[in-house]
Amino acid sequence: MAALLLLQAGQSRAEIDQVAALLDDAIGRLGLAFGRLDALIASQGALVQHAIGGGAQALAGPLAEVAAQVRRETEQAVQALQFQDLSAQLLARLAERIDGFAALAELLRLPGPDAEAQWRAVEARFEALERRTVAQSDLAGGDIELF
Length: 147
What we know:
By secondary structure, this protein is mainly alpha-helical. Helices cover about 80% and strands about 0% of the residues. The protein is rod-shaped. The C terminus is likely disordered.
């Protein structure tokens, strides 16, 4: 039984690490894409301002409004990327729990002369996890800035 628990804990930990790596890669790519999008919007704005300088002033307001809307939407999308930070914290806590389960399974499999002290250490490990919680359940709780 303890060997099965150890095996499952190890496999679960590997899967958590894989999810964390995938999230980090996706967020990195999204951050770069949004940065390029922001630069393109700024470049487009400069070109529009140059073109308008030739007498098409009637387009200035509507074009500026569209550019502002695109910028606002981009900023909201970037703020939504906050999920990576929250999910990374939750994945780290889950990984620590699984490591605790593995330590507990090892203790059950091979109890030693200092089993009571080892049990207290595992128990303290789980108690520490209870004190560190991520309370946010949606992305509306805060803003971040990536650029």
